[in-house]
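**Protein fold record**
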Amino acid sequence: MLNKVFNKVFGSRNDRQLKKLNGLVDKINGFEPAFEALSDEALRQKTDEFRERFTAGSTLDDLLPEAFAVVREAGKRALGMRHFDVQLIGGMVLHHGKIAEMRTGEGKTLVATLPAYLNALSGKGVHVITVNDYLAKRDSEWMGKLYGFLGMTTGVTVSGLDHAEKQAAYGADITYGTNNEYGFDYLRDNMAFSTADKVQRGLNYAIVDEVDSILIDEARTPLIISGPAEDSSERYKEINKLIPQLTKQEQSGENGEPEGPGDFSVDEKAKQVFFTEDGHQKIEEMLEVAGLLHEGESLYDSSNISLMHHLNAALKAHALFQKDVDYIVKNSEVVIVDEFTGRTMPGRRWSDGLHQAVEAKEGVAVQTESQTLASITFQNYFRVYEKLAGMTGTADTEAFEFQQIYGLEVLVIPTHRPMQRIDHGDLVYLTINEKYNAIIEDLKDCNQRNQPVLVGTASIESSELLSQALTKAGITHEVLNAKQHEREAEIVANAGSPGALTIATNMAGRGTDIVLGGSFEAELATLKSSDEVAINRVKSEWQKRHDQVLASGGLYIISAERHESRRIDNQLRGRSGRQGDVGSSRFYLSLEDSLMRIFASDRVSSMMQKLGMEDGEAIEHPWVSKAIENAQRKVEGHNFDIRKQVLEFDDVANDQRKVIYDQRNELMEADDISETINEIRNDVVNEVIDSYIPPQSLEEQWDVAGLEEALQNEFSQPMPVAEWLKQDDELHEETLRQRVLDEIIQAYADKELQVGAEVIRHFEKAAMLQVLDGLWKEHLAAMDYLRQSIGLRGYAQKNPKQEFKRESFEMFTQLLDKIKLEVIKILSRVQIRAEEDVEAIEAARRNQAPAMQFQHADAEAMVSGAEDQRLAQAEGAESEEPFVRDGRKVGRNEPCPCGSGKKYKQCHGKVS
């Protein structure tokens, strides 16, 4: 109550922030007459002037009013578009590192040019992030005309570019690309072997378009670069034959828990599957018959952990993942469909063997499993940027998460013209068939009135079912889903034409506007001649169609079901009512819809029964809408918990990632790391000696024989320590340590003399990078296993997150020690004959790249506590060992094996 009174008197925080920015708008507008009088060349020279002023000490905030005025004038000349005042406000919000919520059709693509130009003046680069490659290419070409007019360069980074093209794209003043591509490029750069192999420069400023889709929806799953692990494709095929013979528990108990006969149960809310006791017994019998399990063995024997891993993956593939909903099969490959955008994600794969299980289910070639080489969550990637901003039509509902996770404040920008769209209440039916029949009747009515309609569905399957029903009813329509994504631009361009009917998944032209009467620009592009008569004729015809659509009520949005997130529903509604156009929307639901069935069916069903509803009747009431909204809040809360938990675990890995990546960068930038190697050598040698000669100990406690063996094994350095002690009575602990160290240093110095300082410096760097990467890869796998099993600590009344932090810190400390040891072992053992040996190491490393896979991990797998799902990959994994020669190495000071009586270094080991 007090908040309402306070807001009424003083205005909300949003109102107060906008009021401040309005003062700057007046200042920007004040420059317009002067800049209109400038020639094109004089306007372009403003960019050089701004850069000089920035170098001289002016801040970007100081330059903002003039820079925005320059961009507005350039927009008029290069694009024929003038920024509205509300777009100037949106640009300022983005420049200040906040999120601008702007309705669909308010021109967010044009808004981004203002802060992008301003921040590019610093010379550090600006990244504009879009949701797909099509928008990245379109926006870079479209807005690139404005930037080019002002003397700035524009690049675009999409999948498939070679190294030189990537470097050129990131070297531009403003770079467009998708969130996945930026994230994977960041990971690839941190696996590069030299600074020249990197493509990105520093992460300075990012503007995220459709920020809710990228930072909220896609943040549930981390980006993973993986390489091939052991091949178990046949095992997936064998297990896949058994799963269809299992039965699902159908009957629900009083609390919604599965009951009754069945081999497995499905928790649709958590997206998990579980074997029942009967199911365990049945599957063990089936595995014995198939020869996959020995008689008398249990699935839970340690030797059968890999079987449980395969079974769980196969059961998930059959029970939770549906064709044409979660994935499609295209060109004999399983391609993931993004649940939020409805777009396909070619090249992306589910982790934990799930993708292989789906491939086996669909009868396509099963690819080998993979192991993690590098990973990062979107949250932690975008938090690397010095400044981050975003824009979308739907962010306010998630303002709390944006603030908590990213420190981003959401400001709602008013529309240029008043909103006229009418949002009708939801209609709820008992069954899906009744719902579809009602939708078809509504569409027939719209078709007769020539009103364009966009029908939104939650899956490819639903869009095709509705399409079949419309075809049967003889209604002409277009279908836009992941299977027809090549025609997206054409379908969206015509979706606002009189009588046009478009069925679409969530990909429904996000990032492109549906113009009433059809796209005027698209028609102009098809003109063969560009004479004024033809243009005027096209414009006149378009105006007639535009007026006809306005008279019919504008674009009508129908949704065939509610999505899990209110934002996705709002995005669909936002297709209509752009720039003050008339329009309307309606949601059709049934109790058989996934959201209603899982989260809201009991309350709404009892309400409908009390009202005595019959077939074909619908209920439309604020209570029902409230129940549905509460169901969506539950799902949003659940998804937020998943994202938060993924982030909390990744925060631990992120601290370690920063240390490793910083160390890699220092290594790549350094020409000489010999000092570092010397420090590491001292630490490693002393630690090895400590194991056999404890500090401050008596000589009786020394294990001299063990030390001699360790020095031979670890450093390939035969040292007669026992003989030294006999010959020299003055040798004590400290002097002995120094003598051992001196011998190892001398042997390495001899090696350096043999091949030259330049080669040895090059090899030191190559060896350290190789060891660092190899052990970091193993560490990531170990962290994965730990994360999967740590949930079990809760049974011991321990906090799993605290346990994870403690154990991962211990593992990281061991990793750093192991890196030191392995580097010194390799440098001590290896015999470098020529510089080609060093080049061979680099070539071997670079050859790993083609085998890499780029994945979005399965979110539920990231936070589950099922240890057995991961341990299988550890079995049989071969650790990389350094080269070991046949026979013992001859020491430099030992007698030469040829029998000459000379020392080896003065005979056959002499440097020529």
Notes: The chain has a mean pLDDT of 81. The first helix runs from residue 2 to 10. DSSP finds 34 helices and 22 strands in the chain. The longest strand covers residues 583-590.
